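Tokens in:
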């Protein structure tokens, strides 16, 4: 893969299903009040940076599009969508309650569910999808995506392997800046 352009990567704000412990995958749930506040915090973070020449690309899933509209308001427009930024597919477990699925599946934790989900996408397929997306980028961009997809994009951009995915930091209401294989977490406290 050619060197990637500078990127800001955002996870969508908290959703109603995040707050109740349900897995979304390709399903959708609206942002909570806290989720909209997290997107506004991301807008303030982005506003403090020079975004000249940057485009905005969002997952087409509603929670990401709503976050993109708030976070990029008055800063970048229009916002394109790309299905490659969608969340990892959870197959039969999409919409399930995380705690119940951990118990019934024998998974060690919620992270394992993304790899074990029947008819799910799995990490190797997500990695291939993210590699393909990154290879098509032609310039600096703000990417608005999802928890696991954000981690996979950043894992690839920092030259790490799939087995390191669990160690990639996450978070809502923050922004990750990536350039030249290095990642920096930006938040309002930094």
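Residues out:
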């Amino acid at each position: 893969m050619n060197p990637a352009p500078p990127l800001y990567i955002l996870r969508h704000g908290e959703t109603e299903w995040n707050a109740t412990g349900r897995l979304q995958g390709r399903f959708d749930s609206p942002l909570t009040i806290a989720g909209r506040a997290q997107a506004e915090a991301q807008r303030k973070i982005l506003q403090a940076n020079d975004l000249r020449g940057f485009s905005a690309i969002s997952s087409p899933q509603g929670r990401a599009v709503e976050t993109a509209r708030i976070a990029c308001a008055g800063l970048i427009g229009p916002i394109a969508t790309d299905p490659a930024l969608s969340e990892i597919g959870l197959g039969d477990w999409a919409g399930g309650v995380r705690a119940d699925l951990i118990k019934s599946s024998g998974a060690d934790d919620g992270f394992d569910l993304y790899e074990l989900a029947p008819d799910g996408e799995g990490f190797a397929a997500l990695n291939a999808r993210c590699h393909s997306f990154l290879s098509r980028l032609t310039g600096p961009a703000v990417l608005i995506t999802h928890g696991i997809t954000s981690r996979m994009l950043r894992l690839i951009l920092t030259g790490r392997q799939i087995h390191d995915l669990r160690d990639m930091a996450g978070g809502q209401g923050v922004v990750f800046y990536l350039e030249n294989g290095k990642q920096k977490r930006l938040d309002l406290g930094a």
